[in-house]
Every structure is written in C-alpha cells, then in structure tokens.
Specification:
203 residues, alpha+beta, Immunoglobulin-like, 2 domains, 4-stranded antiparallel β-sheet, 9 strands
Length: 203
C-alpha cells in the first residue's frame, strides 16, 4: 500500500472485513479526524505548508509582509496658538471698527471774536464739535440773537476724525453798538448746544 495515497478519512475495504475497536483520535482538525497511525506524509506536508504560510503571514518567518505600522499621532503645533489668537483679535477689532457704532458727538463749544467789531465788521463765529473718531454724519443749525436761524446743516466725519470746525459769518452794518449771541445746536445723532457772545461797536 502506498502511504502517499492513503488518507485516514477514506475507509479501505479491510475496515469492513475486520472491524477495529473504537479508537479515540489523537487530534481534531476541523471536520477531519486524524488518527496517529493513519497520518500520511502527504497530510503532514499539507499541514506543514499551512503552518508555514500562517507564520509568514503573521511575520513570524522572513519573507512575510511587514507588520502593520501604527499610525502616528500628529502633534498640533501649539506654538502657533498665540499668533492665531492675536490674528483673531485684530480681525474682530477691524470688524468692530467697520461695522460697529457710528459717529457720536462728545462735546460742542463756540468761540467768538475777542474784540468788539468795528463799523460794518463781520464776526467769524467758530463752533468746535468733538466726536469719537467714527465715520458718520451729524446735523446742526445756528441760532442768532437777532431772531434768525439757519436751516438744517450736515457735517460728515471720516474715520479717525475726532474734531470738526463749523463757521458762522455774521456781518453788521450801520452805526450804534450791539451785543450779539450766536448759538450752535447739534440735533443728531445726539443733542448738544453751545453759545458765544461778542460786541459790535460803531459810534
């Protein structure tokens, strides 16, 4: 009998002629029972090849695939965090500067000529409006002590401009003396009032 052609799972005719007593298998591999005396060289070679392939696959023998490398965790560069925070702060400030509150008037003052006007003289009354440096437009008008009043006027301030000068030219004619008062009234965005007094003397 050729051992290479024999398998323990194939029952020869002599098993029917001479039934053998029950023999416990010495190994169990899947659904195939391997008996000690019946393990042939062919089966042994197949088992050896299977074991070798398994070892090579798992990297236990040379020639197998390299073990899977663990992915490296990328470290976030913390040194860039302060720069990012500064950049965000600058962007927020610029956004606030462009889209934040508009012009706001802080104070109003009026200056008049320090000396009395001569005959047929013209007084240059100057109103000074101080603001918050934001761009925008405010409205105002002049009131004179002779009962006249200007129409509604507008002044536009540019970004960074914190002061505006407004001029009222008041001309007098004839003889006599007069004490005049000029009043500057800012009506928007908030209400402010200031006035100045000067003299006209033509005697």
């Amino acid at each position: 009998m050729n051992d290479d052609d024999y398998s323990a799972t194939e029952l020869g005719s002599h098993w029917f002629e001479h039934p053998a007593p029950d023999i416990e298998p010495d190994r169990v591999e899947g659904d195939v029972l391997r008996f000690g005396p019946g393990v042939t060289s062919a089966v042994a070679r197949r088992a050896e090849n299977t074991l070798t392939a398994a070892l090579i696959w798992h990297g236990a023998l040379p020639g197998g695939p390299p073990p899977a490398s663990q992915p490296r965790r990328r470290r976030r560069p913390l040194r860039y965090v302060p720069a990012a925070l500064i950049l965000c702060a600058v962007l927020l400030f610029l956004a606030w500067w462009d889209f934040g509150p508009q012009v706001a008037v802080r104070s109003v003052a009026v200056t008049t000529p320090g000396q009395a006007l001569d005959c047929n003289g013209t007084a240059n009354v100057v109103g000074v409006v101080r603001a918050n440096g934001r761009p925008g437009t405010f409205t105002y008008h002049w009131e004179r002590s002779d009962g006249t009043r200007s129409g509604t006027l507008r002044k536009t301030l540019f970004r960074g401009q914190e002061e505006a000068s407004l001029h009222l030219l008041w001309t007098f004619h004839g003889t006599g003396s007069h004490r005049a008062t000029a009043r500057l009234v800012v009506t928007s965005p908030t209400s402010h009032t200031a006035e100045g007094t000067f003299a006209y003397d033509c005697t």
